[in-house]
Amino acid sequence: MLVVLRIAAIIFAVEGLLMVVFATLPPGAQLFGANSEWGMALLDAAALVLISSPFIYLWVIRPYALAHARSEAELRQSEGRLNEAQRIAHLGSWELDLTANLLTWSDEIYRIFEIDPAAFGASYEAFLDAIHPDDREKVNKAYTGSLADRTPYAISHRLLMADGRIKWVHERCETDFAADGTPLVSRGTVQDITESKLAAEALRVGREQAELANRTKTEFLANMSHELRTPLNAIIGLSDMIRGETFGPVGSPKYCEYVKDINEAGQHLLSMINDILDL
Prior knowledge:
Elements: H1 2-24, H2 37-89, E1 91-97, E2 102-105, H3 107-113, H4 124-129, H5 136-149, E3 153-160, E4 166-177, E5 183-192, H6 194-243, H7 253-277
Antiparallel strand pairs: 1-2, 1-5, 3-4, 4-5
Helix pairs in contact: 1-2, 6-7
């Protein structure tokens, strides 16, 4: 490659010199012939170019070629780092040329949408087709509204995969406009937020289940309190009345002992129920 560049430089230099010579020839002048000063000057110039060509190569062509190669290598390295960063963050970038209706996606967006670049139509309509049918109108309104208002927008929406899976993405976009307000180029990002959406949904479901369980527990305790405490309070109250012979003598002292046992057992059972229901 470098040899080719060197030869090309020599040829271009000689051609350039010839063009200068021919352009400066006076009318009727002979380039070659006896005692032709022009011919001798041309030969001297050509010899000078041939002799100096290695120096031209070393001082001009080679440094330029090396700098160009380094620039290309740095550019490829930078692009590789950007693609790797986007892959790790699940964040891709896109650009839509509105004058040509040409959509450009980064590699990560193709991975997020699970679309083969060769099969993608690379247009705004093709992008809408990849969105969940129930979200297409919402996304389209967000984008067209941003063009009408000349403001950026952000929206979260779903993608419907070929196998029926649903992904969630968060999209941001801003657009460059001409002086007359005509939209020129839209640029944006798409981030896969499926994991965070699923985590938030699981948290919401868990919270709802916990609230339902708490309500169920409260209702159960209220019912148990009524169903257990009410008859026990009646037993304890009636036994107290019998022990105190409120309505007259009981008769046999044994009955008083039995009533006492009933009252104490009722008090003990009520204490246990209170402890259980207060947990």
